[in-house]
Amino acid sequence: MRLLAVVVLLASALAVCAEPMSGYAFLDASTRAMQDDEFENPGMVAVDRGAALFHEHREAEEYSCSSCHGQDGEGLDTAEIARYPVYDANLGGLVTLQRRVNYCWEIHMDRFPLTPGSSELIALETFVRNRAHGEQVNVQTDGDMAALLARGETLYNTRFGQLDIACQHCHVQHQGQMLRGQKLSQGQSNGFPEYRLGRGRITSFQQRLAECFVSFRAEPFEAGSEEADLLELFVSSRGNGLPIETPAVRF
Ligand code: HEC
Ligand code: HEC
After folding, report:
1. Domain annotation for the chain: domains and CATH numbers
2. Residue 244 near residue 187, CB atoms below 8 Å
3. d(CA 70, ligand 1 centre) in Å
4. Which amino acid residue places its CA nearest to atom 17 of ligand 2?
5. Ligand 2 neighbourhood includes 187 CB (under 6 angstroms)
6. Which of 236, 237, 238, 192 is nearest to 211 (CA)?
């Protein structure tokens, strides 16, 4: 009986740790209030810039994004946006939201593709993901995705760099603890692209990832690389069920 009680207790403690929690839960009250107020939230500037690009109808071109997706993106499928990154065999496998936008930009609009992580691409991504604000993250974890997720998880648990440390050391084992004046969160992706008060700019998931790598003195994976995409996939799937907060406000 006793042993059983201990096992049940342990199992419930683990379940609490495994419960996904947004970085929002780790913020102080004033940063939360800033995020929640559309007029105060500095990330809304990127949403507006993305909206302008979304409407932009270039001379001699057939389409703007809004020609196909509605003036304010009301034709976009917000439940579908919450599923990104997705598996799409026609587009070569794993497709992040940035890659989807770039695909439309290049294939549907016949434009020269944007560089992964470019400010236009991040602004468009911010606008598009903000359309799905409040939708629950719903990344596919079975079927074709299973093997890719396993690779992402391996990267998440791999030690890198001079400090020989893995994502999970900070964001699983030490979540809730302080590190250099910051409270470690679970490192969730539901707020991206997000506005970073310390940097004074909008930041994509993969840019944030690179900052974490630099912080533990490891060589970051390039934006748009296979490894960065796999980490984005795994981290996003950890956040299944969390509401999309784009643009979140973080330190
Ligand atoms: C010529 C029409 C066309 C244009 C122009 C276009 N798209 Fe798309 N877009 C599509 C189609 C078709 C899909 C796939 C829908 C599906 O799979 O059901 C799609 C899918 C998407 C999705 C995935 C979510 C969803 O609703 O399926 C996003 C995000 C998106 N487009 C953003 C953009 C952005 C940003 C631009 C401008 C840079 C753009 N699109 C320009 C046709 C277009
Ligand atoms: C040395 C500790 C450390 C390691 C290792 C680390 N990070 Fe972080 N990470 C931080 C700190 C500090 C922050 C800012 C506070 C927070 O949200 O945890 C952060 C923030 C994040 C965020 C933003 C969370 C949000 O809500 O805005 C993501 C995503 C993230 N990390 C992913 C990763 C991934 C993926 C790895 C592995 C490649 C990693 N981190 C490795 C320290 C670390």
Report:
1. 22-251 (1.10.760.10)
2. no
3. 10
4. 185
5. yes
6. 192
* pLDDT at residue 209 greater than cutoff 80: yes
Q: Which two tokens stand for residue 73?
A: 């993106």
Q: Residue 17's pLDDT is what?
A: 53
Round to whole Å and give the CA distance between 219 and 162: 10
In whole angstroms, how far apart are CA 157 and each of 21, 170, 172? 19, 11, 10
pLDDT by residue (tens digit) across 45-69? 999 999 999 999 999 999 999 999 9
- Is residue 149 lining ligand 1, measured as CB closer than 6 Å? no
pLDDT on residue 9: 43
pLDDT at 180: 87
- Indicate if the pLDDT at residue 10 is higher than 60: no
Q: What is the largest CA-CA distance in the chain?
A: 77
Q: Which residues contact 83 (CB under 8 A, 6 or more apart)?
A: 138, 139, 140
